[in-house]
Amino acid sequence: MNVKSLVLGLCLIAGQAGYAAADSCQANIFGGQDCQYDNGLTSSSQSNIFGGQDVRYSDGRTSSSQANIFGGQDVRNSDGSTSTSQSNIFGGQDVRNSDGSTSTSQSNIFGGQDVRYSDGRSSTSHSNIFDGQDTRNY
After folding, report:
1. What is the 3-state secondary structure (H, E, C) of 47-67?
2. pLDDT per residue over 51-101, tens digit each?
3. From start to end of 62-111, where are the E strands?
């Protein structure tokens, strides 16, 4: 799994678990992404030894993930919430959160993902020139 897909997956998981959805991300020197969110927050991630990412948000929250056997990520957030994802046949991820909410994504022709959340929200992303993603939330 490449870093863009991994970080997008984490954004999907975090977005569903009460975190804002990333509007713009760019690669950083730590094997992760620096992101700006639609609510003014920022985050910075770095790869970890478990095939995942450690994420720190500007409001002090943290998130850590590790690869699982389903081609996805198991995520633990500092507020105690958890999420698990698995790859799907559409080039995306199916996500289940500890609060019962879900999301599913599929790759699109713009090098990004189209996402549908169980609460009716949706988002679409596309690659940007900074080796990251720009996202529009609906």
Report:
1. ECCCCCEEEEECCCCEEEEEE
2. 999 999 999 999 999 999 999 999 999 999 999 999 999 999 999 999 999
3. 62-67, 73-77, 82-87, 93-97, 102-107
